[in-house]
Amino acid sequence: MRRGMVRALGIDFGEKRIGIAISDPAGRLAVPLTTLARRDDRSALAAIAEIALREGVGRLVLGEPVRLDGSRGPAAARVRRFGERLGCVLALLLAGAAAAALAYGWWVVRPYQGYPGAEKLVEVAPGTGAARILEQLGREGVLSSPLVARAYLVYVLKNPPLQAGEYRFAGPMTFPEVLRKLIRGDVVSRSVTVVEGFSMEDIANQLAQAGAGRREVFLERMRSPALIADLDPAAPDLEGYLYPETYRFRVGTSEAEIVATLVKTFRSRFERHVRPILAGAAAGAAAAGNPATVREVVTLASIVEKEARASAERPVIAGVYRNRLRRHMGLDADPTVIFALRRLGRWDGSIHHDDLRLDSPYNTYRYAGLPPGPICSPGLPSLQAAARPADVPYLYFVSRNDGTHVFATTLEEQSHNVEIWQRRYWRERRQQERRDAAGEEGGGPPPVRRRRATKG
User: Fold this and answer.
1) Of 23, 140, 262, 268, whose CB has the highest number of CB atoms within 10 Å?
2) Is residue 2 very low, low, confident or very high in pLDDT (cuts 50, 70, 90)?
3) In angstroms, rounded to a whole number, what is the distance separating the alpha carbons of residues 370 and 364?
4) Distances in whole angstroms, Cα of residue 374 to Cα of each of 142, 161, 214, 262
5) Domain shared by 11 and 28, yes or no
């Protein structure tokens, strides 16, 4: 209903029944609403007053019975008296529960919480009328009296529209606080964390599972490079450019808006925190073998993101890959092979020896240089590490199986480290597992995921 427009309630008295009609907001057309049995004036007054408040009525129209000659007799006088009493009832209700509430109304200014727990989530469906919304909030324990809240909405706030959506009500609230929340459309903002190292498909799944939209629509938007065409003309999609961060989206935000926000955030973080690093190293970037373009930086950063767990190691791992790129060596990075296998639908959770011979440009065991593009969305530390790799002599690293790595300069050193941290570690772990299975005591290392060494 638009502000300033009021509805009229028509009341037609009969000997046994009272007919009720309601007008449109302009007060021009009326339609039958209900019929009340006329038992006694008190119950009729209460029923009509409730209808008037619930429907947001601004005027009462009473039909008075007249004689054939047009004169009014005792029946008309009774109707007038009833109308006066009804007007008094409504005036008292409104004065006590709405108009005077700004100063002293007990109903309106008293905070109320009728639900258990610290908060209550309520979903208001689109198209639901104000009266039904307030009744719903009464059932959910948010409002103590939907009827009084309706009176306050209509006669004090001038009946503004209430917005649909999911609302969070936390702790006791007054009528004005609840109503203004609904008027503003202060719906729940969904919090979604896009995780570092997630691929396009992972992010689409995550957003869909969080209730932010449909997976297929997210993927459709992500497969179009239009949002980064100026930044990376070679990009076939948005892989690598969906920035990992915690976001808050209003309920109803479209998939297109969400994807655009992720890309916009990438642009902002890159321009502020990564571009200056590239600018400072631009003169010698090509000679030094450092990534020189946005695409090269994001691609290397995505591999670093997948390989590194300890923050301090990110620049070092980037330095290892930079050194191998200088020497035209294969990067030998497992995450690139996994990415290729996932794209082919062949990833079963483990890399097999045959997988290293996969004929894919993303197979960095078979093809030297960077893969064609990013394999995931890297976080800021990985982007900065790729833009400025550490100046280290290393060409190899192998996992310690605790999230850190051992680095080596020569293949001989690497072979020694692989023997200690891979072959011996896993041999001893399997022996310990067999002893544990046999019921013997042991204190082997905690179960961790095996990671392949970067080798020459």
Assistant:
1) 262
2) very low
3) 7
4) 49, 47, 24, 16
5) yes
Instruction: Give kind and range of the element (H or E) at residue 190.
Output: strand 189-193
Q: Which domain holds residue 327?
A: 189-331+368-392
Instruction: Identify whether residues 249 and 385 lie together within a single domain.
Output: yes
Tokens 């996994």, residue located: 338
Asked if residue 341 is part of any domain, the answer here is: no
pLDDT at res. 20: 85
CB 203 within 8 A of CB 242: yes
Domain assignment present for 339: no
Alpha-carbon distances of 288 from 275, 320, 323, rounded to whole Å:
17, 13, 9
DSSP alpha helix (H) spans, 212-369: 215-222, 255-269, 275-281, 285-288, 294-307, 314-326, 334-344
Q: Is residue 124 part of a domain?
A: yes
Parallel, antiparallel, or unpaired: how do β-strands 405-408 and 396-399 relate? antiparallel
Q: Which whole-number Å values give the CA distances from 98 to 8, 179, 393, 430, in the listed order?
A: 19, 13, 77, 75
pLDDT tens-digit map of 301-322: 999 999 999 999 999 999 999 9
Which ranges constitute the DSSP H helices of 311-387?
314-326, 334-344, 380-387
pLDDT tens track for 200-250: 999 999 999 888 899 999 999 999 999 999 999 999 999 999 999 999 888
Tell me the pLDDT tens digit for each residue of 249-265: 887 899 999 999 999 99
What is the C-alpha to C-alpha distance for residues 327 and 131, in angstroms, rounded to an integer? 74
Q: Number of structural domains, the chain?
A: 4
Q: Is the pLDDT of residue 142 over 90?
A: yes
- Inter-residue long-range contacts of 4-7, CB under 8 Å, 24+ positions, other chains counted: 4/158, 5/159, 6/56, 6/57, 6/58, 6/59, 6/159, 7/55, 7/56, 7/57, 7/58, 7/59
Domain finish residue from 149, 172, 187:
187
Does pTM surpass 0.85? Answer: no
pLDDT, tens digit (0-9, with 9 covering 90-100), for 349-373 = 888 989 999 999 999 999 999 999 9
Q: Calculate mean pLDDT across residues 133-156.
A: 89
Nearest 10 degrees: CA dihedral of 198, 204, 206, 207?
130
Residue (of 207, 225, 228) closest to 217 by Cα position: 207
Question: Are the C-beta atoms of 179 and 152 separated by less than 8 Å?
Answer: yes
* Pair 161, 299 in one domain: no
Helices 200-209 + 215-222 axis angle, to 10: 150
Residues recorded for the chain: 456
The total of other beta-carbon atoms located within 10 Å of residue 434's CB is 11
Condensed to tens digits (0 to 9), the pLDDT of residues 422-446 reads 888 888 888 888 888 877 554 544 4
For residues 262, 266, 272, 274, the Cα torsion angle rounded to the nearest 10 degrees is: 160
